[in-house]
Amino acid sequence: MKQLNFIATLLIAFFSLTAVFAQQAQPLADTDKNRIQEKADSLLQQHIALQEMVGVSAGIYYQRETIWKGGAGYRDLENQLPATGEMRHRIASITKPMTAVAIMQLVEQGKIELDVPIQTYLKDYPRKPEGDITVRHLLGHVSGTPFYGSKKEGFPTMHFNTLDEAIDLFKDRPLKNKPGTAYVYSTYGYTILGSIIEKVTGQHYADYMKEKVWSVAGMPNTHLEIFGESYPNQSRLYKKNKKGKFVSDKQTDLSLKYPGGGLLSTVQDLLNFGKAVLDNELVTRESLEQMGQPADVEWKGTPYGLGWYLVKDEVYGRILRHGGRQSGTNTYLSVFLDHDLVVAVLANTYDASGPVYSLHEHLRNMAVNAEQRSAPIRPIVSMSKKQLKPFVGKYDFGKGQIMHISEKANLLHSKLGQYPLTPLYAEAQQKFFYRGFDGQLEFVKNDQQEVVKVIFYQQGRPVEGKRLD
């Protein structure tokens, strides 16, 4: 394999088709469940010990039951209240597949058509010179509806009494592209979908969702987050400041985006939602198949269907996924259609997407792969900023492949091309590894103790990158 493609292929595997050599699923014995539970608890504790998040709650549904759920760290750091499996927290954009399910229910009932202009349901929504927006366009983020217009909108403090009031904020803005021609992720598109639900049912969005989605799936702790109200076991919101210390994150008002990212829930509720999707308790198999079809546009990353990111994995088969990130929040949910498996992770810390994804992958692997259940957790060496500083720089792997190594919050991070920052963990003074896939970096020094290159290993295969600065 050419060096140019080697690193990129590895990162594609990590971010979209991460593969492990899993065995054919067999019924879990009690000893297997115990191993999973013990290792999962230890993994949570490791993430907290590394100060990657203040608190975390996670769970695994597999082979017709919740085989594990747990929590670690704190849901309230100031008052030392522990994060448990019952922690109630923001789920951010995991709200979107729930809204999409509601839309598909109404499609099944003949109350909504996917391919008609949205003005069929929202009479006052302005028509766009770029072309008509359909319900299907909104579900798949190909409507051209713009994302947040500013950082203030992404972390909103304004309050909207209705979804229609929220829509007034952006409805007159020009589209990013002609509807149906390009993928442009937009939470505002889901605010519009919520309003459509209200128009065709005559119910408030939250009332319909509670009656037809959350209650049906067994989700008693899922609901809108109303600004200023408090709820049992509710987590506070955190982030890291520039010095790497945990501080309170901004308390935002989610009324601008309730149907696309405005809910509180628990890990168990998310597992139950995934189970209901698997069992066709919410929509028919035919509707789910429609949700699993991406739009006919160019995809540079993971394709998006109707409310879900879509992955076809060589080992795990068809996967419906969605993550979420907003003030004080990082979340991840996956429904494995071919393995009767659901994995959910809720973290109460902003910008913890890397650790959340890594934890999710470890939990998935343990559920299906017997070898992973018994494998020891890889130890991690703590290093200071001063110790990490010599490795920071750019490394040339040839043919335009430049890896950037940076330091943030006492961790090295690598970045290659379009792929996001990926944390690296030290196992020795000059050796680091990725937790989401089988990859290691070894930095090499000259006689003057200057870092001159890095060697990237995957499955024992080395590729060298020469330091540029």
Structure in words:
With 469 residues, this protein is of the alpha+beta class. 29% of the residues lie in helices and 24% in strands. The strands form 4 sheets. Strands 13-14-15-16-17-18-19-20 form an 8-stranded antiparallel beta barrel. A hairpin with a 5-residue loop joins strand 15 (411-416) and strand 16 (422-426). Helix 2 (30-49) packs antiparallel against helix 12 (353-368), helix 3 runs parallel beside helix 7 (187-201) and helix 3 crosses helix 8. The relative contact order is 0.16.
The stretches of 5 or more residues where confidence is low (pLDDT under 50) are 1-6, 8-24
Please outline the major beta sheet. 8 strands, antiparallel, barrel
Query: Measured on Cα atoms, how large is the radius of gyration?
Result: 23 Å
* CATH class identity of the largest domain: Alpha Beta
CATH topology of the largest domain: Beta-lactamase
Helical fraction = 25-40%
Mean pLDDT: 91
Q: Please tell me what the overall shape is.
A: globular
Q: What's the total count of β strands? A: 20
Distance between the termini: 27 Å
How much of the sequence lies in strands comes to 15-25%
- Oligomeric form: single chain
Question: What is the helix tally?
Answer: 14
CATH superfamily of the largest domain: DD-peptidase/beta-lactamase superfamily
CATH architecture of the largest domain: 3-Layer(aba) Sandwich
Strands ordered across the widest β-sheet: 13-14-15-16-17-18-19-20
Q: Structural class of the helices, strands and pairings? A: alpha+beta
Number of domains: 2
